[in-house]
Amino acid sequence: MNPDQYVQDKAASSGSSFYYAFLFLPQERRAAITAFYAFCREVDDVVDEVSDPGVAATKLAWWQAEVHKAFGGQSAHPVMRALMPHTKTYGIEERHLQAVIEGCQMDLDQTRYLDFAGLQRYCHLVAGIVGEVAARIFGQTDERTTEYAHTLGQALQLTNIIRDVGEDAMRGRIYLPISELQQFDVKAHEINKREYSDRFTALMRFQAERAHGLYDKALALLPAIDRRAQKPGLMMASIYRTLLREIESENFQVLHQRISLTPLRKLWLVWKMQALGRM
User: Fold this and answer.
1) What is the helix, strand, coil percentage profile of the chain, to 5?
2) Gyration radius of the chain over CA positions
3) pLDDT digits (tens, 9 = 90+) for 57-71
4) For 97-110, what is each residue's pLDDT tens digit?
5) How many Cβ atoms from other residues are within 10 Å of residue 15's Cβ?
6) Is Zinc-finger a UniProt keyword of this protein (predicted)?
7) Helix segments in 14-128, DSSP class H
């Protein structure tokens, strides 16, 4: 299997909504974003799939070294061999990839966040930076698009956090800030035991309103000159915001299940943005 086949399989097998947004891109841009997404999946999988924290830390350290070597002209892993030919074209720098790894390291070192400012740092690394790189690959021409992409990345990550509260708790992580759990009088053990309450619903509604605010802010920040090029990001916004509304309609029943959209519904949302330019 050559590097391009490897990253294609990695992206396709993930089942992620991101894959749908790549479908309408020109071949070279699609190859670049697929390789970058495969890199993100590789390092994220280290945290999610390796049960021993020491082994996971060692693997992330290996990835740090591999990224550094790749930018020095010595890539070994098929993901880096697929990604490196696109780095100069789209302005992808070593610092971008190292930031994503740093964000994954936070998952090993920290399972709780005291306040939203701390959570924002995590979202900046694992989602904001990813949004910035994606915007460059999609065809950014205006510097202001960087802030749009970073804000949208954070909105997507907060939606993930809302969707995955139950699954993350099973892995020993609660991303909801401690200060906000206290504000709504929700105890960590209630989340771990999958106990619903009006207090939990109010807490989650608060989280959803923050995410909606970030979606609105991101869309307002996108310069008109880049709107057409950034359609893949807008497709993601459409899919994830629809998911957020679905979670709201089910009254935030996220502790015992993973609420998701069907592939057909995702394709419909992607097609609507591509063909009609609207969410």
Assistant:
1) 75, 0, 25
2) 19
3) 999 999 999 999 999
4) 999 999 999 998 88
5) 10
6) no
7) 18-21, 27-49, 53-71, 78-83, 87-90, 94-109, 116-123
